[in-house]
Design a protein that fits this description.
heterotrimer; A mainly alpha (464); B alpha+beta (541); C mainly alpha (353); A: 464 residues; mainly alpha; MetI-like fold; 2 domains; two-stranded antiparallel ribbon; 2 strands; B: 541 residues; alpha+beta; 4-stranded antiparallel β-sheet; 30% helix; globular
């Protein structure tokens, strides 16, 4: 058993770390970072506080300062014609960069594309006052289009109608740049891959280092540190989970023991179908039903509607806090117990009945022990191992199973944090939660391992 | 408050809760008085003197004589200069506010009077006056005790800054400034405002204490400067319903942004109403629909007007906001009575008129929709509506619109998307129609960046492509208007043009819902966030 | 099966209910319902059931946008089945294929030449780069379809070239000819373990946050994560069957692999797989409702039970929004689990008896 669990742990670690890595990489690939919301797109008002160019400059500074313009991973494979290995999401918020990429991909030569763009900027500057209507549209075209023919056409038009000589000169230079681009074009260059090794100067490495030190970054939506948010959330969920799990376990064990005995026939005929029925109600329906029936101001209000409880600035005595907390937790805990009871009970019951039919039970009966004593001392002891297996699988499921209860009863725990971060695309928090779940899984395997050793002395022997 | 402030640094704060608290700790030169929603001089004695030169504008301010910091030293122009340096320097965590003050090129301190100074700003736009007074003034003695930034000149901070990045003084200052201490420490966050930060229990509450003899309390010319309550405590309650519970249990004195259905419920609760007063101020945030007038199928304004007639605004309000909203005719709030065009009425929901307008625009109604003959062949009138995902207001509005349009024979496809993706698509002009919200203020009604054709290129704010030569002229004239009457006339004309063009269709202005305990008076309830001025609260007898 | 039908009343009831629901769902477009599911009746929002006049009869009430609960329940059943059944079928198929091959080939069963292995690995890499990465980038930059075609054609041409080269070299190099065992069983086992360590819901949530809400993508994700249960079952069964005498007999006759699996093994595998199918279907219904309840991964224009039930969160006094859809949902899942329970009993008896 021992080595088996250890092997499971060894396989679990890479799988879960792989998932966290995948989440991190994907989140960086998507357009939009914390900065874009706050800095680049602050235009909720009638007027914008600060011109577009200023905001772009500030955004670029922010990105440089927080290291988001570093390459994504240690190694990157890019087409030969890609202008730079900068992370893709930055290009989408920068028109010039985007046009550079498009031209380099299409015509295969980043250097010439860069030259063209520089010449266009010079052209724009050559208009002494800001260009009027006619030119503005053409200049906009020069900045966005990525096919040579329309660009050449537009430049020729500008030369034809521009009054100032320096404008015409600048436009002529643009034309030569375009000509160069056309002559040197290699349309299929984008198909050749190019490997670049970035060493440790990449975002992933930085993130990994920081994560190993415990700093998981900051949330996109509230800019608080992710570790602080997670710790708060875990604190709220932990006691709820523990209590409900203990209650479920106790009921499952007692119930199965009672049902396994001969006297428990009636109970069994009644309880098993009831649990079966309960199992088929989806968790969120059950929670909502309980909410609507028992916590509804218009109906029966036995329990408070939502929340973790009162907001008390003063300190209450421990007993009072406990009373209050349990009043608010009663309904969510009840829900959790009802969700998990059918599964756990049926598994425990199967394990116990399997043990009941074993040889040693017959021996015990022959010895003359009472039914109760048999069940408690022999059967239970021997069915502990499968029960521990079930529990070790069950623990992580509890974590994710509570998100329904937390969302519906508005308890600020890990499950609800997961749902909220998914809905608001808050990737640092999401990565953090995935890591926490991973760690929790591994921890449960290790605990199961230890529990095995304790429950079965034979394993302890083997491990020695 | 709903969310714990990430940081209380007056330079890098980014949420509304932090702003509310910072307004009590620090002051800016100009600020809004929530009693009448007007900009008034707070740290300054009076509104600035404006002098317009060819390529620059000069704003001259005089600080109040009585203004002092927490340690008693006077607030001087040197502090203002220091603030500008902090806001504009590289390497510091100031990118949030930097673009806002970029236009201030230099500050000239009056040698004779340490409390008088002039901002030198590039160019001119009407909101500059407001923006020069919109940032918090920082105490140099507290933030930079070693005078590291003293040798830097403000004028040197405009333009290319790469050499400065190697300045050792700046690096030392940046190392200290960017640490979390500057955003969380009670000893550093002391400004010229009426309160100091007494304690901050992370995740639980923040308490502010009134300064023992604050200079601002008895200034004859400025009754709006106030610090009445002795102690203010902000509770951090992230969950709306828990906050409501706390309110119902009489543990909170003030709660804003109460959810609509809950608000309806507590309105009926007699015992609650005995202790608390409920208010629903009109905010300056409104929801609008935009149609891409560049697309050939929407180029005729009658088509756009027909679509506007299919927007059932009264039902939007009833379903999404539970009637806590006011329909509006344009982007000017109905509350701004002087500028709101009452003679215009918003587009009424009218299927017949929509059909007539479509026929007039050249569409023919056939079996399965409206068709038009164009050069590329026959085109059907279909719509794809984009809006930000996750908000039920937009979603309900979109679904109701989809049904109204289906009745009229126009198939509509709904696409909820993430905010940044939506912004991208709108700026690239790759959409048919969208729902969005915009928030403004009553001070500066400068719609130029939003509605002028100069900004109608890809990447500009004018995403709908709205603009006629007349509207451009009106927008320019509004910014040059010298008297309110002229401005009002021009704004009303602008609203008429907007209504006629039907590319930017304002739907309704939102209302907020607040409950305040009845023992307080002088609340200054207003539409501007945070909707009440806690420093002005007085105890009723 | 017939005996079950005749004897167990519960089974009969459950099976009848499911068939009735299926018939109703299929005939839905022709049924005379007074309201379409997405039709808004803004004058009668949040109406309680059994109210209303004869003309504007919303028998089971309406939600906050005025949509009729009754028609939403019926069309929601349609959505539930039209999504769950194909997804479950596909994932069962995938699991069956993977599990059976893992069980049959074991770790050493499948042997192939190094050339083939090399070819496979190289093709996969090329596929990833030229078939996925490059087109995605081209799509993102908006460069046009032509470049995508060029990339895809390279993706096809290069492997063919590689195949030609390797085939030419094949007779000359013993290295390429060497036979190598493809470790099917360990690979599938590791894959299932890796997938099952990650809680499925978390995985779906995470993936749903990256992708736009679409039923197709969601179904794909679910298929790719749900196959592990069936695979494990199929693998265990296959390994058990491999040791049975009739299988050895068939092998000794000389039937080749494909016939062995198809004729001898699969018919006996189908039993447990059917059991897994009904169980999985119930779970899938619950999953789909939960996702649409949270408005994750599914567009909000999809008629679904979960969407209706979600409305009760903002209107807690509208009990009809949770009781009716919830009851139907639970009943359906109950029926599926009942069938599953009895079916598993039969197959257990059959395999032990």
């Amino acid at each position: 058993m021992g080595p088996y669990i250890l092997k499971r742990v060894l396989w679990a670690i890479p799988a879960l770390w792989g998932l966290a890595t995948a989440v991190f990489l994907l989140s960086r690939l998507l357009p939009g970072t914390f900065g874009t919301e706050q800095i680049l797109q602050r235009e909720g008002a009638y007027f914008s506080k600060g011109s577009e160019t200023d905001r772009k400059a500030a955004y670029r500074e922010y990105v440089a300062r927080t290291g988001q313009d570093l390459p994504l991973f240690y190694l990157s494979v890019n087409p030969k014609s890609q202008a730079s290995a900068i992370t893709p999401h930055l290009t989408s918020s920068d028109n010039a960069q985007e046009q550079l990429e498009k031209l380099s991909w299409r015509y295969g030569s980043p250097a010439h594309a860069q030259a063209y763009i520089a010449r266009v900027e010079a052209l724009e500057k050559s208009f002494e006052t800001s260009a009027d209507e006619l030119f503005r549209a053409k200049l906009a075209l020069l900045r966005t289009n990525d096919h040579i023919a329309p660009l050449q056409q537009t430049v020729k038009e500008i030369i034809a109608i521009a009054p100032q000589p320096q404008v015409r000169a600048a436009a002529a230079k643009v034309l030569t740049a375009l000509q160069n681009l056309k002559q040197q074009q290699q349309p299929l260059a984008f198909l050749l891959p190019q490997w670049t090794w970035h060493g440790t100067n990449n975002q992933y490495h930085q993130w990994l280092l920081r994560a190993l030190q415990g700093n998981l970054g900051e949330s996109y939506s509230s800019s608080r540190s992710v570790t602080a948010i997670l710790l708060e959330a875990i604190g709220n969920t932990w006691w709820l989970l523990l209590c409900s799990m203990l209650v479920t376990l106790v009921i499952a064990l007692e119930g199965s023991v009672m049902m396994a005995q001969k006297r428990g026939n009636l109970l069994r005929k009644f309880l098993l179908p009831l649990l079966f029925l309960l199992d088929s109600i989806p968790p969120f329906v059950l929670a909502l039903l309980l909410l609507v029936l028992l916590a509804n101001p218009d109906f029966l209000q036995l329990f408070p509607v939502y929340g973790m409880g009162y907001y008390m600035p003063q300190k209450l005595s421990l007993w009072q806090e406990l009373m209050q907390w349990s009043y608010y937790m009663a309904l969510p805990a009840l829900c959790l117990v009802l969700f998990n009871l059918p599964y756990l009970t049926s598994q425990v019951y199967n394990a116990i009945t399997a043990a009941m039919q074993a040889d040693y039970t017959r021996t015990a009966r022959a010895k003359g022990l009472s039914e109760a004593a048999i069940v408690r001392s022999h059967v239970l002891r021997n069915s502990l191992l499968p029960i521990i297996t079930i529990l070790s699988d069950f623990l992580p499921a509890l974590v994710t199973g509570t998100f329904i209860v937390e969302t519906i009863f508005a308890i600020p725990g890990i499950g609800r944090l997961l749902i909220e971060s998914v809905l608001s695309r808050d990737y640092p928090v999401l990565t953090g939660i995935v890591l926490v779940v991973a760690i929790f899984r591994i921890a449960s395997y290790i605990v199961a391992d230890v529990a095995y050793a304790w429950a079965d002395p034979r394993i302890k022997q083997k491990m020695r | 408050m709903a969310m714990e402030p990430g940081t209380l640094s007056p330079v890098s704060y980014s949420d509304a809760g932090a702003l509310q608290i910072l307004n009590l700790l620090f002051q800016s030169l100009l600020s809004a008085d929530l009693a009448d929603d007007k900009i008034k001089p707070y740290l300054a004695v009076a509104m600035p003197q404006v002098e317009r030169l060819d390529s620059a504008t000069l704003f001259t301010y005089q600080l109040r004589e009585e203004a002092t910091w927490a340690d008693g030293s006077p607030v001087t122009a040197a502090d203002v200069a220091f603030t500008l340096k902090v806001l504009k320097a590289p390497l510091l965590n100031n990118e949030y506010l930097k673009p806002q003050v970029q236009f201030i090129q230099d500050i000239r301190v009056d040698t004779a009077n340490a409390k008088r100074f002039t901002f030198v700003c590039a160019g001119y736009s009407p909101e500059m006056e407001l923006l020069t007074g919109d940032f918090f003034i920082l105490p140099a003695y507290l933030f930079d005790p070693d005078a590291l930034l003293q040798p830097l000149e403000v004028a040197a901070l405009s333009g290319s800054l790469s050499e400065l990045e190697n300045n050792s003084n700046l690096k030392a200052f940046a190392a200290r400034f960017n640490s979390s201490e500057y955003g969380h420490s009670t000893s550093i966050l002391q400004g010229s405002g009426g309160y100091t930060l007494e304690s901050w229990e992370s995740g639980k509450y923040l308490t502010l204490k009134r300064k023992s003899d604050w200079w601002g309390n008895d200034i004859p010319g400025a009754p709006y400067l106030s610090a009445n309550p002795g102690r203010i405590s902000f509770q951090v309650i992230p969950d709306n319903t828990t906050a409501l519970l706390a309110l119902k249990n009489r543990q909170l004195d003030v709660l804003e942004s109460i959810e609509t259905s809950e608000f309806q419920r507590i309105r009926q609760d007699k015992s609650f109403l005995d202790d608390y007063a409920l208010y629903t101020p009109d905010t300056y945030e409104f929801i609008y629909a935009g149609i891409n007038s560049r697309l050939p199928k929407f180029s005729d304004k009658r088509t756009r007007q027909a679509i506007a007639h299919l927007l059932d605004v009264s039902n939007f309000i009833k379903v999404s906001e539970q009637n806590f909203a006011t329909p509006t005719v344009g982007p000017v709030p109905p509350a701004a009575k002087a500028y709101y065009n009452e003679r215009l009425s918003p587009y009424a929901y009218n299927q017949q008129m929509a059909a007539d307008l479509l026929k007039a625009a050249g569409w023919q109604r056939e079996q399965n929709g409206w068709f038009q003959n164009t050069e590329g062949g026959r085109e059907q009138l279909t719509l794809s509506v984009n809006y930000r995902a996750g908000s039920s207001s937009y979603e309900n509005a979109a679904i109701i619109f989809q049904q109204s349009a289906a009745e009229a024979g126009i198939p509509v496809q709904l696409q909820a998307m993430e905010n940044s993706l939506l912004s991208q698509k709108l700026k690239a002009h790759a959409y048919d129609m969208f729902f969005r919200s915009l928030s403004g203020n009553p001070f500066v009604l400068n719609f130029q960046p939003l509605l002028h054709t100069n900004y109608a290129d890809q990447g500009g704010m004018n995403v709908t492509g709205f603009g006629t030569p007349e509207s451009d002229n009106v927008l320019d004239a509004i910014n040059k208007a010298d008297t309110p009457e002229v401005k009002a006339k021009l704004l009303k004309r602008l609203q008429e043009i907007l209504h006629d063009e039907a590319a930017f269709i304002a739907l309704y202005y939102l209302k907020d819902r607040i409950a305040v305990h009845r023992r307080f008076g002088n609340l200054k309830i207003s539409g501007l966030k945070p909707n009440y001025d806690v420093s002005a609260f007085t105890l009723k007898e | 099966m017939r005996r079950l039908w005749q004897q167990e009343a519960a089974f009969k009831g459950a099976a009848l209910y499911l068939m009735l629901l299926l018939v109703l769902v299929l005939l839905l477009p022709w049924l005379p319902l007074s309201y379409a599911p997405n039709q808004l009746d803004l004058a009668h929002t949040l109406q309680a059931p059994f109210e209303g006049t004869a003309t504007a009869a919303h028998w089971l009430g309406t939600d906050d946008l005025g949509r009729d609960v009754l028609s939403n329940i019926l069309y929601g059943a349609r959505t539930a089945f039209f999504i769950s059944v194909p997804v479950m079928a596909l994932s069962t198929l995938l699991g069956l294929v993977l599990g059976t091959s893992a069980g049959y080939f074991g770790a050493m069963g499948l042997r192939t030449s190094r050339k083939n292995l090399l070819l496979l690995v190289c093709t996969l890499l090329l596929l990833c780069y030229y078939g996925l990465y490059l087109p995605l980038q081209i799509q993102r930059l908006g460069l046009g379809v032509q470049m995508i075609f060029e990339s895809l054609s390279v993706c096809i041409v290069l492997p063919m070239l590689l195949y030609g080269i390797l085939k030419a070299l094949y007779p000359y190099t013993p290295f390429l000819r060497a036979s190598v065992a493809v470790p099917v069983d360990p690979a599938v086992l590791r894959l299932t373990e890796a997938l099952s360590t990650i809680p499925r819901f978390v995985l779906i949530l995470v993936l749903a946050s990256f992708l736009p809400p679409s039923v197709l993508l969601l179904s794909l994700i679910i298929v790719l994560t749900l196959w592990t249960g069936t695979a494990r079952l199929a693998r265990a069964e296959m390994m058990r069957i491999k040791q049975l005498p009739y299988f050895e007999a068939a092998q000794s006759i000389g039937l080749n692999g494909r016939q062995l699996i198809w004729r001898q093994a699969l018919p006996n595998l189908l039993g447990p797989v059917l059991v897994a199918f009904t169980f999985g279907l119930g779970g899938l219904l619950a999953l789909e409702s939960t996702l649409s309840f949270f408005n994750i991964g599914v567009p909000s224009t999809l008629v679904s039970w979960g969407r209706m039930i979600a409305k009760v969160r903002s209107n807690t006094s509208a009990w009809w929004l949770v009781v009716f859809p919830g009851a139907i949902l639970s009943l359906t899942i109950l029926a599926l689990y009942t069938c599953n329970h009895y079916l598993s009993k039969i197959f257990q008896e059959k395999s032990t008896g």
